[in-house]
Amino acid sequence: MRIFIFITLSILSYSLSKAQPPKDSIVMLKVTDITANKLSFVNDIDLQHFDAKEISNYSGQSLDNILNDKAGINIKTYGYGGMSNAGIRGGNSYHTAVLWNGVNLQDPLNGGFNLSLYPLFFSNDIKVHKGGSSALFGSGAMGGSIHLTNKKDFNKGLQIDLLSGIASFSTYQIGAGIKYSDNKRSSLLKIFYKTAKNDFPFKNTEVYGSPKVRQKNAEQKQIGVLQENAFLLSKHQKLTSAVCYQHSYQNIPRQMSSYNASASQENESLRAQLAWKYFNKNYSFQLRNSNLLSSLLYNDNSNSIKALHSSFSNISEAEFNLKLRKIDNLKIGLINTFEKSNSDELKSTLDQNPQQNKTALFISYKAIFSKKLFAMANLRKEYVKNRFTPLTYYGSVNWKVINLLILHANISKNYRTPTFNDLFWSDAMAKGNPQLLDESSISEEFGIKLKTNNKLLSISFNAYNTNYKNLIQWVPENGIWTPLNKKAVWSYGIESLLNVNKKIGTFNLSASGLIALSRSTISELNDSENNDIINKQLILTPQSEGNISFKVEYKKFSFEYITKYVGKRYTNANNTDFLDTYLLGDIILNKSFKINNNKLAIMFRLNNIWNTEYVSMPSYAMPLCNYELSIRLFLNKK
Known about the structure:
This protein has helices at 2-19, 52-55, 63-71, 134-137, 420-424, and strands at residues 47-50, 74-77, 84-87, 96-100, 103-104, 125-130, 144-149, 157-167, 171-181, 185-196, 201-203, 212-214, 220-234, 237-251, 263-279, 283-300, 305-324, 328-343, 355-368, 373-384, 392-402, 405-416, 439-451, 457-477, 480-504, 507-524, 544-554, 557-566, 569-570, 578-579, 582-595, 598-607, 626-637.
């Protein structure tokens, strides 16, 4: 009931902001804002940015699709339409923070976030940061972070965004958005709905004779509502709000070795945020409060299992940003996070569902010594349940050797606190461990970037080294699985990113490529492991992967070819069994029409054009060649 009240209030707030403009709305405000957000205190060479134009090619898809195509990170997908998560630079999914408007969405129960449930229709700006950044973004950001936002425009009048799409395997999606902005306010409302059977044919290689069968028990439905506001209260004050509600129902795809499957899960989430900011030429101050509510209902009729898990988080933040020497930036922040859970399998020592309070203080400084040299430093200390976490830090130096060449070096110490499942899980087969220590890592990085002034060519090369300590691993003890800080991992590798852009007459030609080579090996064993797995590659972590794309644009038409390569992934600890490498190719065709101030965009996409038979995770089938067609209409009225 509370969820529907929130949605009603968000829609009502949009209606009121549209219907009751302030009397002085014709007065133009000269706004001077300090925009040093947290991402400005990390090395931008480690950032990948996907803007609204690039995201529009994925309007009806979810977050994992664009990351899989463009980001060059390890996306693990449990079957087409199933759960997806990301691992960056050899880290696991719970080492990758996903932030919505600056708030970490990792579930306090298990530390994960399902990328397949977040529709790209809800964001027009995505950034991926590779490398540890716990000093800025807190627990979980050990391997990297993904940032989801909507850029807020003013003085655009009325804008309407309509989406309709159809795809293979009885997939349909619709979306509608309406936005109004003048010189003092900007208000956005979006609704998205998707349904799919996902009943694709595939060759079942895990059954004798490898018969061709059709996927079963993979249906899904998603619905979401997003509402955001921004109000300029004066030339020095801004108020923003955001509410996002999502509900999904999906059957869990069967494994290829299973003949029957009847499991399903229902996910529901509500995110609400309110922020006030005061700013002028030399400093800014922000207060922000966010509430996150999520639940998962798991149902397996064949095994008579029905379980409900839910969590709630309240995050209160205060940040102060100050300009020093007119060019340097200092940021100081205080964050308090309250988390609680509700699950029959979670019981604390007080015999009640566990909860915890975390308070963190961080300090960030960006010093610009000259046009060719600048450095950044971040420190963070957190207090969790009567104890302090280790001091974490991030330091970076950038040096422009010549106009075309930049060198950079980073070092960071990162951490992850145990989840509620790690601490308090309790059933007949497994039991949590309240004495667990925080996971930690130290990471070093060195890179070179070559960039021409005319944006014709950009090449970057990064080498990194990370040592993970006290990693939490569930191991059997006296017949009961329990988590222990028994694991240490050494991860190192190189990444190379190339971008080329060239205009020839009325044609725009562009190409990009990203190659990642990584080794993630076990450097310390637990008591139940054998020596033959020491220095062996982690399970399901590819040593090589990459993306290459070629794009041709002519007037309002574009053609793009994308290829994705994923190397060998081992399925056991001693690296004797593995999943084969695979190479996928996709084609995207776009045609847009401009009608006065309005725009009609048609996108047609062919996925897996080479009919490659592959799996992302063991025993979970993936489809052969399939298509997507979407039509998007943008209506604008000043």
